[in-house]
Structure formats: C-alpha cells, structure tokens
Amino acid sequence: MRQIRTALGDLRGHRNFIKSAQVPPCDYFLTDPPFILEFDESQHFSRPRLVALHNYPENTPIGFSISRWRDFCREIDARDDEPFDRDERRAWYDTLRDLVPTIHGFRPTVRVHAEEFPWCSLDADSAHGLERFWTLLQGRLPDRIR
Question: Of 98, 116, 115, nearest to 107 (Cα)?
Fold first, then answer.
C-alpha cells in the first residue's frame, strides 16, 4: 500500500490526497459469498488509476482483469481536476476497495465497466432480472466466487 501511495504522489506531486480515514461507501456489497461489486464509470479510468494498478502486488487475488483495466485507463485517460487531486483520491480509494477486503475474509472485489451493458435496465425486483444479472456477472467472477 505504501508503494502505491508513493507512486500516486510522485505522478503529479499531489501527496496529500488521502482526506479521510474511512473509505467512501462501495457500490454494492453481496453477502453470500461476501464480496464488493463496483461499477466503474469512465472517471475511474485515469492515469493515477493506471499507476496504482501497475503497483498491485502480483499474487494478490483480484476480481477483475487488471490488464483490461489498464487498457481502459490508457484508452479513456479520464481527468477530473476538481478538486485538483480528485483522480489520485479516486485511484487510492479504488485501490483500498480492491486490496483490503480479502485481508478481512471477503472474496476479491469484482469490477465491471458500467458502459459494457445497460445494467440499470435489469429489474432487481424480479426473479428474471436477478437471474439475468447473475448470468451476466458470472463471466466476470473469478472461480473462487462462482
């Protein structure tokens, strides 16, 4: 974590981007098995996020394709400079959501690119909508979650 924090600070010189001792809420938490599900919109694919991903430990269980996320970061190259260190903050909190849960016994955080599918078109109140959601998600889940 220290290596990632240093790399983020070195990127643009913004070293005081950690503003809270608590991680902002995750998008979704599923209980059985326990894991976090994050829907990443384009603002999550920035240069600071690319730097963070390049510094992830090699043997850490991850619930998404790091190489694909790196490609998205290069392609989208999102920039959000309000406030000036917003990209570093977002990259840091995404990193915490990715790396910390497994330390506490959760399965790896699963990430989906929000633009891959019209996720909001699914009806969470219907059995068909939930079945469709899990079917779509299965291809993105690591074997240890399925």
Answer: 98
Each domain of the chain, given as residue ranges in start order, spans 2-115
CA dist., res. 75 & res. 130, Å (int) = 31
For the sheet with 110-113, list strands across it. 28-31, 34-40, 110-113
Q: Is 114 exposed, middle or buried (0-12, 13-18, 19+ CB in 10 A)?
A: middle
pLDDT digits (tens, 9 = 90+) for 57-73: 988 889 899 999 999 99
pTM score: 0.86
3-state secondary structure the chain: CHHHHHHHHHHHCCCCCCCCCCCCCCCEEEECCEEEEEEECHHHCEHHHHHHHHCCCCCCCCECCHHHHHHHHHHHCECCCCCCCHHHHHHHHHHHHHHCHHHHCCCCCEEEEHHHCCHHHCCCCCHHHHHHHHHHHHCCCCCCCC
The region that residue 142 occupies, defined by phi over 0 for left and psi between -120 and 50 for alpha, beta otherwise, is beta
